[in-house]
Amino acid sequence: MNNLSNNLSALQSLGFTLPSPGYLFGSIVFGLVGMVAWRLGKKRERPITMWLGVALMFYTFAVSRTWLMYLVGFALCAGMYFDRG
């Protein structure tokens, strides 16, 4: 157990931190919503919905703040809502 604590401390000193539970939950939810949107966009031949789904699946890798992840995720979901036609 002490070795694990030392490894975690070493990673934190290099600037690596573990994500919060809220961030992990949001990443999973927005990723799943993106996957569903991509499949529906492909099935219904709606390229905007398809690309918004791709963005939802992968944008969490580029955003490090939890509040910003939720803000962007809800904005992309709103874009899919308005594109539903």
Main beta sheet strand tally, sense and closure:
none
Number of strands: 0
Question: How many angstroms does the end-to-end distance come to?
Answer: 55 Å
Structural class comes to mainly alpha
Low-confidence stretches: none
Molecular shape: elongated
Beta-strand fraction estimate: under 5%
Radius of gyration: 17 Å
Average the pLDDT over all residues and give the rounded result: 88
> How many DSSP H or I helices?
4
Q: N-to-C SSE series?
A: HHHH
Structural domain count = 1
Helix content: over 70%
Which properties best describe this structure?
mainly alpha; 4 helices; elongated
Describe the structure.
The chain is an all-alpha fold and 85 residues long. It has one domain (19-83). The chain has helices spanning 2-13, 21-43, 47-58, 66-83. Helix 2 packs antiparallel against helix 3 (47-58). The chain is elongated and about 55 Å long. The mean pLDDT is 88.
